[in-house]
Design a protein that fits this description.
The protein has 355 residues and is an alpha/beta fold. Helix content is 33%, strand content 14%. The protein has helices at residues 45-54, 65-69, 71-82, 107-110, 119-137, 153-161, 230-236, 240-249, 263-275, 301-318, 327-337, and strands at 18-25, 59-63, 87-92, 143-146, 166-167, 199-202, 205-209, 215-216, 221-223, 253-255, 280-286, 323-324. Helix 5 (119-137) crosses helix 6 (153-161).
């Protein structure tokens, strides 16, 4: 376990904290690993955006390849960009993003992480999708989230090379080692001991704050010690299925990610962030979770109605206490305040990394 220690490169903006909303805009129910990917859920972004605007929220829509091809999404994006009501960023699903380069016997089934591909393929995919999004939406794309949270140091360097200045792939307290991509490899990244505050990445070791221009904005996730049930988890770890069941019904962490059954967890994260004086909250969802029957969490219209209720409750609580911002706007705020500039000549602010 890494030690808690002050790190002046970890951002700690001492003003009204920011409220960030990030939406992975992608195909329908990718949890089912479909061979033909559809994007019917794009139609359901309109109600979500309307709700956000009613409460003054400013989402960042992180868009993958198939969603960028959707005419419905293109219409939606044109509207929010024209009103300056949201931001368009990038979300890269390596198995379904050009240039295509098969990695496993069935990439649609295994959904490999981008960092499992050769560096030349990684670079080509990042470059292609960046240009495709910017050409399609006629806007500069500077914010990013890795598909399946799969970020490593090579990927981060490529983002810097292509002009990105914000990433939000880190899930503190969470390891994806048991979530495989390429079955010959060791699974996803382990973010267990990463910072929980925003920090400029060290491009040699993305778990550390450094001097790169890429600001990492981790998802708002809070450790829940009372749920750890150490003895039970140790026994369950002998059986992968048992551990999955335990994590489903008694997760050891709370995310600011509505699932229709976790309103208490959402407010636990908000309250913890207040007490911890965090500089931002980041609520995240998938676009497919806005459509009934398009995700495991929200199978019916009633479940979507519960999601709407939970979102309204969160947004009402946030109003007046957290300042809504897109990822681009949050990055600009960090730079402007000079609290945590990653430049040798600039003054550093104080901060304590959450490990």
């Amino acid at each position: 376990m890494l030690q808690h220690h002050p790190d002046k490169r970890v951002c700690n903006v001492r003003s009204m904290p920011a409220m960030l909303i990030t939406i992975d805009c992608e195909g329908d129910n990718l949890w089912s690993r479909p061979r033909i990917v559809t994007t019917h859920n794009a139609r359901y972004l309109f109600w979500f955006q309307s709700l956000c605007e009613r409460y003054g929220m400013r989402p960042t829509y992180l868009v993958n390849y198939e969603m960028a091809l959707s005419e419905v999404f293109q219409e939606f994006a044109a509207g929010v960009l024209h009103r300056e009501a949201a931001e368009i960023g990038m979300h890269l699903h390596a198995w379904n993003s050009p240039p295509f380069s098969p990695l496993t016997p069935d990439d649609h089934y295994y959904q490999p992480y981008l960092f499992e591909y050769p560096s030349s393929v990684m670079r080509a995919k990042v470059g292609y999708l960046t240009k495709f999004l910017e050409d399609t939406f006629q806007t500069r794309v500077v914010s990013h989230r890795a598909g399946r949270w799969g970020l490593d140091h090579r990927y981060a360097r490529m983002l810097v090379d292509h002009g990105f200045n914000v990433d939000c792939s880190v899930t503190p307290h969470v390891s994806w080692r048991n979530t495989p991509g390429d079955p010959r490899r060791e699974g996803g990244p382990d973010f267990t001991d990463f910072h929980h505050q925003a920090y400029f990445l060290d491009l040699d070791d993305i778990s550390r704050a450094g001097s790169s221009p890429l600001l990492e904005v981790p998802i708002s996730i809070v450790d829940c010690p009372e749920r750890r049930c150490a003895g039970v988890r140790k026994a369950a770890s002998l059986c992968d299925l048992a551990l999955r069941v335990l994590n489903h019904f008694c997760p050891p962490v709370c995310w600011l990610q509505p699932n229709g059954r976790n309103r208490r967890d959402l407010f636990y994260v908000i309250e913890h962030a207040k007490q911890d004086r965090r500089d931002y909250l980041q609520l995240t969802l998938h676009s497919s979770e806005l459509m009934p029957g398009c995700s495991p969490a929200f199978p019916t219209r009633l479940s979507i109605a519960r999601l709407q209720d939970d979102l309204e409750a969160v947004f009402a609580t946030i109003q007046g206490h957290w300042l809504p911002a897109t990822l681009r706007e949050y990055h600009r705020r960090v730079i402007t305040t000079r609290v945590a500039m990653p430049m040798a000549a600039a003054p550093f602010g104080s901060g304590v990394p959450g490990r």
